[in-house]
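Database export, one record per block. Field names are fixed; values are copied verbatim from the stored entry.
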Amino acid sequence: MRAIITAAGRGSRLAGTSDDTPKTLLRFGSGTILSGIMQNFAAAGIAEFIVIVGFRGEAIVEYLTANGKLGYAVTVVRNPEWQRGNGISVHLAGTALDPDEEVLLSMSDHVVSPAALRAMIDAPPGRNQLLVDPRIEQVHDLEDATKVWVDAGRITRIGKELADFNAVDCGIFRLTRRYFDAMGRQIGRGRDSISEGVRELIAADDFEAVQIPASSHWIDIDTPAAYEHAKANRARYG
């Protein structure tokens, strides 16, 4: 199995901290956020990646090249429309997949413990799934998090704006070809966020929740405060 990492966006909320360096290249532990994400995937058993680049994509490519792709098999896909929604990047990644290939999808600023990634790898095949955290009171920056409603293991609603929710999106998906087809249809309708593809499949009763293991942790490094928190608590995310 391979993992897609979407690293095309600018990360404007961290621009002051990053000096316009792609935020996935910010220092994290002994490496970067990107290397930390890849290390966690490798610890879970995945060492093949498709990395989608856009804003300052050359910096990410140069980093990977200078560091021997960090020892992994990496395919780079460029998104010239990186200023649009993140669903564009995911749909482009689909062009690098085999017809029946299932993949994990990770945001380039979500650091997730290997045990949680392993839970996604071990989840039943042939299904579209999202890693969720029901420990709402522990979520860093809950206001900005994408919320979900889970009913008997099925995701029935998703969105940052949800007033009623019982779990939070951890930023890790397991996707089948059905998702990429749905995302293509949504882009054709002018809807280009990842969640739009998810909503189409929710309507078809085709998206399930995988609950994060109780001992695992994750964080979305989307703000200076989240970045400082992640660095101070690096060990819990590895």
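Remark 1: The domain at 2-232 is CATH 3.90.550.10 (Spore Coat Polysaccharide Biosynthesis Protein SpsA; Chain A).
Remark 2: The two ends are 20 Å apart (CA to CA).
End of record.
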